[in-house]
Design goal:
Blueprint (H helix, E strand, L loop, with lengths): L3 E11 L4 E6 L4 H4 L5 E6 L2 E13 L2 E6 L5 H6 L4 E5 L13 H4 L3 E4 L4 E9 L6 E6 L2 E6 L5 E5 L4 E4 L9
Parallel strand pairs: 7-12
Antiparallel strand pairs: 1-2, 1-6, 2-5, 3-4, 3-6, 4-5, 7-8, 8-9, 9-10, 11-12
Length: 170
């Protein structure tokens, strides 16, 4: 079975021509929601392939027209659907750049080996990304900069950090 990556969720229909507003769940929305791209639409346990007929962005969210979705009623029926892409279609990233899904679930440890917690998400832009780390006592945000994130090993599911004074006390 092909491994699929969640790239967005249909928020609701838009207009009367079958377009939908998507809440993106990806760090490359322009690439993932490009015209002609075929996505897997998953809803109520079933999956359907749909080609993107047209797309435009409004306030950072894609407004997508799919082949076969031509009316307001068709679009509204997609509300809540998950939009996915086969992992095999992802392109390689530059060195020290990671897909969010590769970091979520990684254990975060200090350079001394103390366990800080597990990554539950990644926030911010590519230039200002932060790891969201669940730990005892609450959530912690760790800036993804080389001076703090000493090593990132998605395959080994471990990120080693050298936190600045006070970061772990937040």
């Amino acid at each position: 079975m092909t491994e699929l990556l969640l790239i967005g969720r249909v928020a609701r229909g838009h207009g009367n021509k079958g377009q939908v507003i998507v809440n993106p769940e990806t760090d490359f929305a322009d690439d993932r929601f490009a015209e002609g791209k075929i996505l897997i639409v998953e809803q109520a346990g079933s999956q359907t392939e749909r080609r993107i007929r047209a797309v435009r962005f409004q306030q950072g969210r894609p407004i997508v027209a799919f082949d076969g979705i031509d009316s307001m009623n068709d679009a509204e029926a997609l509300a809540g659907a998950e939009l996915k892409l086969p992992v095999s279609e992802l392109r390689p990233l530059p060195e020290r750049t990671y897909y969010h899904h590769d970091l979520v679930g990684c254990e975060v440890r200090t350079a001394e080996g103390a366990v800080v917690g597990k990554v539950t998400g990644v926030e911010g832009t590519l230039e200002r990304s932060r790891l969201v780390v669940a730990r005892e006592g609450g959530e912690l945000q760790v800036p993804m900069v080389e001076t703090i994130c000493l090593s990132i090993d998605p395959a080994g599911r471990v990120i080693v950090i050298d936190p600045p004074e006070g970061l772990l006390d937040l």
